[in-house]
Amino acid sequence: MSTPTAVDVPTLLEISPQGGIEGRSRRYEKYLGDMDGVYRDEQAWQDAVGERGTDDLVYWVDDQRYQEGPGALIVGTSTVLPGLYGEEFAVTRGHLHAVADRAELYYCLSGRGVMLLETLDGQTSAVELAPGQAVNVPGHWIHRSVNVGDEPFVTLFCYAADAGQDYAVIAEAGGMKNLVVADGDGWALKDNPDHTGYRAG
Ligand SMILES: O=P(O)(O)OC[C@H]1O[C@H](O)[C@H](O)[C@@H](O)[C@@H]1O
Ligand SMILES: [Fe+2]
């Protein structure tokens, strides 16, 4: 059991529905240039880089944490800006927790999105989220936020402070099994033909 420290005190967090936390510990920003290899349509991503440059902000995360040890929670907001790369909607890189059994809650604050979920043994799920809706993601599910609207997709998340992130799992598999693509006014799932299957769990 970890010894409480002076900073282990309850903290009031002011959470903006547009994303952002007063009282955060950290802000983490991802730019278009960081998304190399994430979208299946490489040319579409290259074209976007040509138009907007590598320094164009695509998503950002504010979080608050008071210790790294097991038992503590990380609370944050994730703001994914809208976009389309070929037929694919704007996504976060996505990950499996490094401590794979760690769960995560995502509560939609604004915008319209999909939480794309997959397991190493091939189960898939996609949960659409509108403001007021949440998804309780069990451990062992790879998760990626997808903005399927035309405004920022903002979620409040909460997960165990010792979870960590494994990003290689998606890259090694040629991307996630499913793509979230534009379909009329909405979205649809499409098989990613480059997906080779995940490594053994
Ligand atoms: O970590 P990424 O897949 O790039 O997504 C960005 C963020 O998504 C979620 O909201 C997680 O809880 C964050 O810890 C993570 O950093
Ligand atoms: Fe996570």
UniProtKB/TrEMBL annotation:
Keyword Isomerase belongs to the record: yes
Pathway this chain belongs to: Carbohydrate degradation; glycolysis; D-glyceraldehyde 3-phosphate and glycerone phosphate from D-glucose: step 2/4
Annotated InterPro entries: G6P_isomerase_prok, RmlC-like_jellyroll, RmlC_Cupin_sf
Reactions this protein catalyses: alpha-D-glucose 6-phosphate = beta-D-fructose 6-phosphate
Domain Glucose-6-phosphate isomerase prokaryote: 33-188
GO molecular function list: isomerase activity
First-level EC class: isomerase
EC nos: 5.3.1.9
Keywords: Gluconeogenesis, Glycolysis, Isomerase
Protein family per UniProt: Belongs to the archaeal-type GPI family.
Name this polypeptide is given: glucose-6-phosphate isomerase
Species: Microbacterium murale
Name of the encoding gene: pgiA1
